[in-house]
Amino acid sequence: MKTQVFALGVAVVAALAAARPVQAEVARFEVTSRGDLSSFNYERIVGKAHVAVDPAAAGNKVIADLDKAPRGANGRVEATADVYILRPKSGGNGVALIDIVNRGRRTIFGFNHPNAAPRIDPATGRAAPAGVDGDLGDGFLFTQGFTIVCIGWEFDVPARDGLLRVDVPVATENGRPITGIVRTAFTPDRADASYTVNDLTVYPPADADVADAALTVRDGLTGAPTTVPRDRWRIAGNVVTLTPAFEPGRIYEVSYRASNPPVGGLGLAAVRDVASWVKYAPGAVVNARYAYAFGSSQSGRLLREFLYDGFNADEQQRQVFDGVMSHIAGASRIDVNRRWATPTGLALYNATAFPFADRAERDPVSGETDGLLDNPRSRAHQPKLFYTNTGVEYWGGGRSAALTHASIDGKKDLTLPDNVRSYFLTGAQHSPGAFPPQKGNTTQQKSNPTDYWWNLRALLVAMDHWVRDNTAPPASQYPRVDRGTLVSSKDVALPAIPGLQSPRMLIAGIRIANPLLAKGAGEGAALPLLVPQVDSDGNERAGIRLPEVAVPLATYTGWNFRDPAVGGSDQLVPLIGSYVPFASTRGDRDARRDPRPSIEERYPSRDRYLALVNESAAGLVKGGYLLADDVAAVVKRATDHWELLVPAAVRSTASR
Question: Does the predicted TM-score (pTM) go above 0.85?
Answer without folding.
Answer: yes
